[in-house]
Design goal:
Layout (H helix, E strand, L loop, with lengths): L6 E2 L3 E5 L4 E8 L6 E9 L3 E9 L14 E8 L8 E4 L3
Parallel strand pairs: 5-7
Antiparallel strand pairs: 1-5, 2-3, 3-6, 4-5
Length: 92
């Protein structure tokens, strides 16, 4: 993922796993003007904080606000499986 951190994108948990990962979905405009650009993950023994950043792809020339194109799913790798921890919006 490469691009600008223009906005925090609200997400919804849709699956855990396989392995140490979760899958979230979010609404975005689509490439190249509104894509997932970064994932900030902060893991503790009781919670996993997740901030999904969206914005323009590197080098994209976009004018105005992107139209909503659809719902996109993103696999988020974790250091350990989610297990009994709570997945929460991050504070980054």
């Amino acid at each position: 993922m490469a691009g600008q951190r223009e906005r925090r994108a609200p997400w919804r948990l849709v699956a855990t796993g396989p392995g140490p990962a979760v899958v979230v979905e979010l609404d975005a405009g689509g490439p190249p003007c509104d894509v997932v650009t970064h994932l900030d993950v902060d893991e503790s023994p009781s919670t996993v904080g997740l901030t999904v950043w969206a914005g323009r792809e590197s080098g994209a020339e976009c004018v105005g606000l992107p139209a909503l194109l659809g719902t996109f799913r993103v696999r988020v790798p974790l250091a350990q499986p989610l297990g009994t921890r709570t997945l929460v919006p991050g504070s980054s």
